[in-house]
Amino acid sequence: MKIAFTTKGIYWDSVMDSRFGRTEFLLVYDDEIKELTNFDNRAISNEAHGAGPKTAQKLYELNPDILITGNGPGGNAATVINQADIKVFIGASEMTVKEAYEKYKNNELKEF
Amino acid sequence: MNIAIASGKGGTGKTTLSTNLAVLFAESQKVVLSDLDVEEPNSGLFIKAELVHEENKFKIIPEWVEDKCTLCGICQDVCNFHAVIQLGTKIMVFPELCHSCYACSELCPTEALPMIPKKMGVLKHFNQGNLSFIESRLDIGEEQAVPLIAQTIQYVNENFLDNIIKIYDAPPGTSCPVIEATKDADFVILVTEPTPFGLHDLKIAVETMRELKKGYAVIINRYGIGNDDVLEYCNKGAIPIIAKIPNDRRIAELYSSGKLIYNQHADARRQLEGIMDYILKLNQVIIK
């Protein structure tokens, strides 16, 4: 299973990014091969409009089963994510990626 | 003549000024008041007039025709607003993000994105004596004010002669909707309050008007609170201050109960008459 995170860095102890569309990185953890990969999304800060769908499109390409994020995607991004059949868990703000992953495993995050 | 009432900072008194000025003008001549703050129009709360016309307003957006599409991806590459996105074998269109530029539709090699109308709001036209009041209201969920503002100004231009005084109540701020609401104005009145926040946003509004090469002047509302920094700023920059509306609890009480002040408050009326004279003189200069 592949799990995506919205983050401000590329390591397990990096801080989560509570934003979806304007997240700095998308981290993807594949728990079968125990591998953590990342996509640098920082170019999104140059976009005045449509950050949500743009990031959601990238997420669609990364093709995770689960997304763990903070505030949750907005309406446009959520439409894209629905198409991709990705389950979204929110509330993972103000914590490291590792803490967010543990909270998810302990069913402590809310499903969007 | 087109007069836009703008501000930078919200809540400085654009609507109070626009509505009272319009009704004062209407005592002696024909006047048009148009509320361009289409995201939250509120001039109508103060204007009692008869609805004479109502029409839906549309923006033009692309609609994906799956059968014709070859999934070449040109549409999403040319969209500056990420309003068209390719997801696998699907093209998704986000109408709220679309700026109706036609790029995706025109550049599609197989005509798979024809442009279609989508309702974005409603325009209403009211009359009362000399006053015509035009209000547009964006539908809930619509993200773009600019197309509706543009169409509202167009409606006014098509329905009223050039020599009638037209007062446009602009949205707050200095972003796209304000540019749209002021760019065709003959003159812009910036309403501010004499506070640090008022001054901060006034400076941005003044810079915007300079960029647009507009004639503009300042009205200080709630005069008597705060400090003299706005006065000093205007004096230094040779920006005319055409009225100072006093800070008075009575004005706030009238406003809060949905009433106009022009015939209820002597000092405010004097200030409004001063503004009216200023506009009429400007109008003569423009006519010449």
Walk me through what this model shows.
The complex is a heterodimer of chains A (112) and B (288). Chain A is α/β, with parallel strands linked by helices and 112 residues long. Chain A is 28% helix and 24% strand. Chain A contains three helices and six strands; from the N terminus they run E-E-E-H-E-H-E-H-E. Chain A has helices at 51-62, 75-84, 97-105; strands spanning 2-7, 25-30, 35-40, 66-68, 87-90, 110-111. A six-stranded mixed beta sheet of chain A has the order 3-2-1-4-5-6, covered by helices on one side. In chain A, helix 2 (75-84) links the parallel strand 4 and strand 5 (87-90). In chain A, 39% of the residues are buried. Chain B has 288 residues and is an alpha/beta fold. Chain B has two domains: 2-58 and 120-287, 3-Layer(aba) Sandwich (Rossmann fold); 64-113, Alpha-Beta Plaits (2-Layer Sandwich), CATH 3.30.70.20. Chain B has helices at residues 14-26, 74-78, 103-107, 146-159, 176-182, 196-211, 229-236, 249-256, 266-287, and strands at 2-6, 31-35, 50-62, 84-87, 90-93, 115-128, 131-138, 165-169, 187-192, 216-223, 241-246. Chain B has a nine-stranded mixed beta sheet with strand order 3-6-7-2-8-1-9-10-11, sandwiched between helices. Chain B starts with a strand and ends with a helix. In chain B, 43% of the residues are buried. The model of chain B has no long low-confidence stretch (mean pLDDT 96). The chains are: A alpha/beta (112), B alpha/beta (288).
